[in-house]
Structure formats: C-alpha cells, structure tokens
Amino acid sequence: MGIVSVSLNDENLAALDRIQETYGLSGRSEAVRASINAALADIREMEAMEGDVEGVLIIVRGNHEDPWMMCIQGRYERTIKTQLHSHLRNHKCLEVMVVSCDGETLSRMLRDIQSEGKADYVKFVRG
Q1: Is residue 100 part of a domain?
Q2: Do residue 62 and residue 118 come from a single domain?
Q3: How many domains does the chain have?
C-alpha cells in the first residue's frame, strides 16, 4: 500500500474527521479511501451516460460575484432548458437546471463545473 502526504486546511480536516465519525471508520486513512470510492462512483456514473439524457442538475456555489457559472451556462445554453438561481445564506447560491442533451455533452459539462473547483455541491439527477 502506498503512502501519500496530503495538506488539508482546517475545513477539510474537520470534514475528514466528520466522515470518519459518521461512517464509523477506524481512522483518517479509511475516511480518505471511502471518499475516493465515493468520487469514483460519481465518475463511473458520469462515464456510463450514453444516448439522450434528461434530468436536473443541482449546484451550490459560493461567491455570487464570480462569473464562472455564467460562462459555463453560456457554453451549454443549448443543453440547459430551464434554470433557477437562488441566493442562500452565507453568500452562497443555488443553481437548479433542467438539462437535455447527449451523455457525452453532459459529462463534459459536469467535468467543466468540477474542474473550476468552485462548486460546494454538484449532483445530477437523471429523469
């Protein structure tokens, strides 16, 4: 088994401890492995999308002033059929989009959102 050194800020460290406690894991290493497995499950789900796909994309993000989400929405305007933007507490925003496209386009859109590193939560619910 390989050993990897990782630097985490206080918020990430608290989240890791919470994952460990919530799932009753034996240590932080187990919590990291569980988190990696959860991320891999999302990746596999994204990669398995084929053909026409419709559903709801839910995103929670911070910093309303940052235009990155508008850039992504512009890039995928043909994919997004309906969208809702709502302001939440702590200067966060909720984006809810009804999307309809082929699986490859949706996978690319999800990758673009995740690669920005600015979304606190991203979930696609297939219809």
Answers
A1: yes
A2: yes
A3: 2
What would the two tokens of residue 42 be? 């999302």
Distance, in Å, from the CA atom of 38 to the CA atom of 122, rounded to the nearest integer, reads: 13
pTM: 0.74
1 within domain boundaries: no
Task: Please tell me which residue, 39 or 59, carries the higher pLDDT value.
Answer: 59
**DSSP sequence for the chain:** ---------HHHHHHHHHHHHHHT-SSHHHHHHHHHHHHHHHHHHHHT--SEEEEEEEEEEE-TT-THHHHHHHHTTTTEEEEEEEE-GGGEEEEEEEEEEEHHHHHHHHHHHHHHT-EEEEEEEE-
pLDDT computed for residue 44 by the predictor: 85
Question: Is 36 contained in some domain?
Answer: yes
Domain membership of residue 38 as a residue range:
10-46
Q: Is residue 3 part of a domain?
A: no
